[in-house]
Amino acid sequence: MSNNWFVFKDGHHLGPYVPEELHMMYQYGKVSGTTLIWREGKENWRPLQDCPEIFDALELEESQKTTKPAITDDPPPLVEKPVSEEQKSKIPPIPKLPASIDVKTPTLPEPAKPSEPKEEKGGAALIKEVEEVIKAEILDPSKKPIFSIILSSLQENLINISKWIYGSLVFILIMFSIYFIWGTQANDPLKGEVLTRDYNRLKEISTSSYKSRPEFAFALSSKARGIWGATNWPGSGEVQVTLESIKGRTLSNKKIVIKSVGYLEDKNVLFSNLLLNQGDRVIEGYYKVLISAIDLSLSAKISRYLSKPNTFRPISKLFSNYGQFKHTTQTLLTKSTPFKFEKILAKYQERINKKHLKFVNDLLEKYRTYQALLKKTEESFRKTLKKISRGKQISRFEKSYISNIAPVLQGAALDSQKVHILTQLNKTTFVAKQNLDNFKLGKDIALIISDMIRKTKKQKRLNKKTKKALLREFKTRAQIARNYCLKKVDELTVYTQKYDEISTI
C-alpha cells in the first residue's frame, strides 16, 4: 500500500508527500486539521484531523515536545510537487465539504458579498421550515419513516424481553418441578416404608377431603418397623389404637389383641411400639380397629377453649388434653394383595378343616371304644357273678380287667388329658373342651368298674338276691356312661357334617 499523501490546497493538488513532510508542514502552519488529504487506497478525500494514522502521530509529537520552535524561524518552503497525469487519473474528485471546513474549492473564488444581518424567523417561517424538515426527513419515500424505526425498535425490544421472560418462566417451572418431585419425596415418610399398593391406598385416604367423619387406613411396614396409618383428619397429636383379630379371618387359631400409641403428623402416624395383650406376634389377617385421637395443635386447643361457655378459666387450661374423638373401622394387615390373601386364607382354612376332621374322628373313635369296653366289661362281670359264691372270688374279674380292659381305657383317657393340658391356656377352645369331656368320661368308666369290684369284695357270701343287686347297679351306671357316649358321637357327627371352622392346637 502506498504511503504517499496528496494535499488539496488553494484549489490545487499537491504531492505526493511522505508523513514526515506532512508533520513538518503542520507544525509550521502550512496545513491545518481541516486540510483535505488523500492517498492511494483511500476512497475519498478526508480532512487531516479525520486521518488517525497522521493526526494521532501529530498530537503525540505535540504532547512530547517541551518547547516549540521560535516564531521567527523561517519555515521550510512548501515544495509544490506537480502531479503526473497517471496519478491524476487515480485521484478521486474533491467532495463537497461541509461549511465547518475552511477549504477553498478548485474553482475560482467569486468576490465576497457583504454579509447581511440575519433576520429573525417569524412564526410562519418557522412553521414552513419545520414542514420542510418533516417532508425531507419523515415523508421522503426514499428514507425510512421515523415511526417505523421506532416501531421496529420497540418490536425488537419486546421480542428480547419476551424471550427473557419465557426463559425465566421455563427455568422457574423446571426448578419448581424438581423441588416438587424431590422435595415431596424427601418429606414423604411413607415412601419406601410400605409396599407400593399400600402406599397408594394410604395416600388416597390422606389426600381425600375431611367431612364430618374421619377415615383411617393401615398397612404393615415393609421394614418391620411396625404399623403405618394414614387419615384425612387435618389435626395432629396423639393417636391410640387397638386392633383385635376377627375370628376365622386371620392366619392363626388364636385371638390377637394389639395396642399401641403414635403421634399423628401430616396425616401420617407410625405405631412402632406394639403391645400384644393376647397372642405372641402380629399375624396377617383382618382386624377390628378402635382409634382414639387427641388433637394437640394450638389452634385446636384454642377452639376447644373458646367453645366452652366459661371463657374466664385460667389460661393454663388452654393446654389440657381433652376433646378426643373415637372411631371404629376394619382393616387388612398383609404383605400381599387382598386377592392373594383370600387365596392364602382359603388354603389355611382348608388345612385347618382337615386337622379338625382328624381331631373329630379321633374323638369319635375314643367314644366308640368306651362303648365297646363298657359292653365287654358288663358281660364279663355278669359271667363272673354266676360262677362265684363269695365276694373275694371277684378277683378273677379284677385280673381280667387289669390285663385286658384297663390299658385300653387308660390310654384313651390319658391321651385326652395330654391334649387338654396342651390347650389349657385357652380353655374356651373347642379342643380343650372336647378332650376334657373325653378324659372325664374315661375316668368315670374306670371309677364305675373299681366301685363294683370293691362292693363285691365286701360281700362274704353271694346269694342270688345280692348278685342281682350288684349286676343291676353295674348296668345302671354303665348305661349312663353309654348314653353319654352316644350323645357325644351324635354331636361330633353333626359337627363334622356342618364342616364349621373351629380353633385347633
Give a structural overview.
The chain has about 500 residues and is of the alpha+beta class. It is built from eleven helices and twelve strands. It has a five-stranded antiparallel β-sheet with strand order 10-8-7-11-12. It is rod-shaped.
Question: Can you give me a brief rundown of this structure?
Answer:
By secondary structure, the protein is of the alpha+beta class. The protein has 11 helices and 12 strands.
Topology:
Elements: E1 5-9, E2 12-17, H1 19-27, E3 36-39, E4 46-47, H2 52-64, H3 85-90, H4 123-137, H5 146-186, H6 196-207, E5 216-220, E6 227-231, E7 237-250, E8 257-264, E9 268-271, E10 275-278, E11 285-295, H7 298-307, E12 325-333, H8 338-387, H9 395-422, H10 430-458, H11 464-498
Antiparallel strand pairs: 1-2, 1-3, 3-4, 5-6, 6-9, 7-8, 7-11, 8-10, 11-12
Helix pairs in contact: 8-9, 8-10, 8-11, 9-10, 10-11
DSSP strand tally: 12
Amount of beta strand:
15-25%
Shape: rod-shaped
Relative helix content = 40-55%
Distance between the termini: 116 Å
Instruction: Detail the poorly predicted runs.
Output: 66-73, 97-114, 315-322, 500-505
In CATH, the architecture of the largest domain is Up-down Bundle
| CATH topology assignment of the largest domain | Four Helix Bundle (Hemerythrin (Met), subunit A)
- What top-tier CATH class of the largest domain fits best? Mainly Alpha
Number of helices: 11
Which strands sit side by side, in order, in the main sheet?
10-8-7-11-12
> What is the N-to-C order of secondary-structure elements (H for helix, E for strand)?
EEHEEHHHHHEEEEEEEHEHHHH
Mean pLDDT across every amino acid position: 76
> Radius of gyration, Cα only, in angstroms?
62 Å
Query: Helix/strand/pairing class, anyone?
Result: alpha+beta
User: Could you describe the largest sheet, including whether it forms a barrel?
Assistant: 5 strands, antiparallel
In total, how many domains does the architecture comprise?
4
